[in-house]
Amino acid sequence: MIQVSGTAAAELAAAAELAAAAELAAAAVRVSVVLAGLVCLSGCGPAPEQIQLPTLMALAAEQPAGEVDMTVPIADGAALARGEKMWARCATCHQIGVGARNMAGPQLNKLIGRRVAGVPDFAYSEALSELEMVWTASALDVWLTAPYRTVPGTTMSFGGISDSYDRAALIAYIHSTSAGSDDTL
């Protein structure tokens, strides 16, 4: 057994207390940083529902008569795979590809370049039917962010996709999946 002098024992006890106090202080700092971050996140900037989104009506007003940009960004395999996963959220109401038909929502073949509310024999909301524009990648990007906010009065009951990468991947997937379809409008 090792014997420690009274002074050494006191120094060891003081060092242990100091280490415990330092550990406690570090934990307090970590908690403070987390709490400060939460306060900032809750108070920094507007809530998502307060962010001003362009409406499709505003985009329609900006869309020139005649030539409309039908470019869809090229997506790599990873983006198309992500788009396919995002499509699962759409597939409950929409179809694409050969044999696609209208369901709760219209079929989405050849969507880019198609007139908004342009599928024959589908009962669109009055809000969408009144839009005089065609679907472009940028219009779809705005629409998919929050349909009910970009076209007030739409009957599409989909909350939207907040992530811009997910929206772009979904648009590329829809375009790539329907582009070669035999179904035309």
Description:
The chain is mainly alpha-helical and 185 residues long. The chain is 49% helix and 0% strand. It has 7 helices and no strands. The chain is elongated and about 95 Å long.
How would the blueprint of this fold be written?
Layout: H1 6-43, H2 56-62, H3 77-90, H4 126-129, H5 137-145, H6 147-150, H7 164-178
Helix pairs in contact: 3-7, 5-7
Any idea of the CATH class of the largest domain?
Mainly Alpha
Rg to the nearest angstrom? 28 Å
Pattern of helices and strands: HHHHHHH
> Which class of secondary structure composition applies to the elements?
mainly alpha
Distance between the termini: 92 Å
CATH A-level architecture of the largest domain: Orthogonal Bundle
Question: What value does the average pLDDT take?
Answer: 74
Q: Work out the number of β strands.
A: 0
3D shape: elongated
Q: What is CATH's topology name of the largest domain?
A: Cytochrome Bc1 Complex, Chain D, domain 2
Write down the domain tally.
2
Could you name the CATH homologous superfamily of the largest domain? Cytochrome c-like domain
User: Helical segment tally?
Assistant: 7
- Sheet with the most strands, sense and barrel status: none
Taken as a percent bin, the fraction of beta residues is under 5%
**Share of helix, binned:** 40-55%
Low-confidence stretches: 31-53
